[in-house]
Amino acid sequence: VYxxxxxxxxxxxxxxxxxxxxxxxxxxxxxRIGINRRTPFFGAPAERRNPTWKxxxxxxxxxxxxxxxxxxxxxxxxxxxxxxxxxxxxFAIPALGGALFGYDIGATSAVxxxxxTGSSDLGSLDSLQLGLMASLPLLGAMLASGVIIxxxxxxxxxxxxxxxxxxxxxxxxxxxxxxxxxxxxxxxRIVYGLGIGVAMHxxxxxxxxxxxxxxxxxxxxxxxxxxxxxxxxGYAAGAxxxxxxxSAWRSIFEAALPVELAMFGLVSVLLTESPRWLAxxxxxxxxxxxxxxxxxxxxxxxxxEVEEMxxxxxEGGGNTDMSFLERSEALLTDATNRKALTIGVGLVLLxxxxxxxSVLYYANRIFEKAGLGFEAAVGVGIFKTIMTLVSVxxxxxxxxGRRPLLLTGTAGMTxxxxxxxAIFAQAGGGAVLTYISHAFCKFS
Length: 444
What we know:
The chain has helices spanning 46-49, 88-116, 127-151, 158-178, 182-210, 213-240, 248-254, 257-270, 275-279, 284-294, 299-315, 324-333, 335-353, 356-361, 363-369, 376-394, 402-422, 429-443, and strands at residues 2-3, 9-10, 31-36, 60-65. The protein is mainly α. The two termini are 42 Å apart.
């Protein structure tokens, strides 16, 4: 890309690029810059092509470098003057769904400890009832995931899913914190779990489909850190609660309600529908408008990128009208799809069946029985947050990457959990291994 003698911009495109606007060096699209005559952007240095370059007097021209081949300035964005990055709400608001998932993990740990004492307003609960309190949200999440997989997302957009998740979160919280009978409380746990399932489907997809490509991987990974911060908040809420109050466990659940209502309002006001979801369903004009608003770009540049989205999907054989059985057949019969499915499902099963998530749900009771006090669970959450940020930093590092982190984390987690189960009854010893096991979990 260079400015010729008439001040025009010539763009040499490579077909393998996802969108023409990315031909131009990052950070200069749409900005007015001063460029010398035939100022090179890429390729050999100018002095090699013209030895007199350094000494020659060249007229300076001010041009606008933009995505595409025309010379019109991009249309101004309504948020262009804002100091807040345009991608921040696209990440932060869906990530609230993850934070509420994490909060429920930490809050459940505290609630199970309080209900297990037998001094709550629900009376004495046995191990089965306490286990249902901890596990039913996961059942609800599984049911929601099954419905989404079966129905597909041809008519339900990412924004609608985030709406639905926030409503299910709020309704579940209201039921489980206000009900007087255990049966209704367990129903509220299932409803809250439905919200978890919907949010965990929509949030990573929305972040990946709307944020800038150079930040996409980092932001999707940082969503995990937000989940862990939610766990810390849940543990902290339990530590700050007065255990002598018979209804103290209800206030732990109720503390999430303001965040749930804020999520609903922010989705309504600040988020657009996913441009990619709109584009792949033939709603091109809406996709262009959503992309221009969400990524702070001109309309013409947005049109080019939407065209590339559609083209890329068509070349990849994408079909949004396939039924559940057709999609399942494509996953199981195609060798490439089958391998990816096996790896993905295998990794998820490895993490869940390892027993590591169960430690999170019962961390309060584990530390209390280890003699360190249930407040020590907050330390687990903080340590887990630190290791999550470390893994985010290393996942793109050439010396580490995904596979070495997975192998290191899995090996360390296995050894730590094995030792934890062996010395659980010993005061202090198990606590240290709990910290270590969660550190390795974040690597994996």
